[in-house]
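Posting for a labmate who doesn't have an account.
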Amino acid sequence: MDLRQLRYFVSVADSGSISAAAVVLHVAQSAVSRQMLRLEEEVGGVLFQRSIAGVELTESGHVLLERARFILREIENATNDVSTFSRGMRGTVRMAAPASAGRALYVPLVQRFHAQFPLVQLELSDSTTDDMLRSLAAGTLDLGLVTEIEAREDVVVKPAWREETLLLAAVGNPICKRKSIAARDLKQMPIIISPGLRRIFEERYGALRPIIQIHSSSPAAELTRSGVGYVVVPKSALSTSDIWRGLQGVPVRGLDTTRMIAWGKGRPASLAARALRAAVEQIVCERIEEKLFLPVRVKHSRL
């Protein structure tokens, strides 16, 4: 098995046919077909189901595709890192974060990072903690901002900041006069909440029965404005979005969340990925100074 075979294989998988892959690769169709047959012989299994319409990956093919993407990406990272010393830092870095954290961090992060490293391409996305963990373990994501997870064998996590949780209600609602609400009291209220925050609540206080569990911010805000219930969100969700106009927040005691910077364990991070991680940490420190985020609590060991 060599790198050419892996590149051909990934191209065929992405294109859905050997002929389309040959066009993308600028080689003869027979060459691609020959390399795929040879690859199947070497791995000892069928990678494609072939038909007149094209090809589809078998289960074995899906397994190899994940590994092949990782190998090719590591080769690209190694090449870019070595060339950094003569041509400047370059490459592609993929990062994901919850939507609320992304709104608070992405704009200053991109502005600052691109000013310093203009040849590095950033691919930023919104994602859930579970999806980020899977992508980090598979090597298809370089950096993730995950929420409240335990130590794992396949991912490194570093606590970055704490974030206050708010209950939002329409302006003028009597509940807005309260200074705060105890997290346990949410069990008796008509709550609209995301899957991630619900998971954290239930880990601390047991089962929660919201009237609606929803991941998208816009409909959650509309439902709250219409009086269906009260939406529970991280404080950063309000920082840069007008989605929540007409709503007022009340702090929820006992439901602060800890955001963590996460990256894959057991593989070298590219220089560009390390630089992005450092930039994220710097902006987080600034957000803590601005009181948007809370500092992580330091656990002191007993002597």
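Reply:
Got it, the structure tokens are right above this. The longest strand covers residues 155-163.
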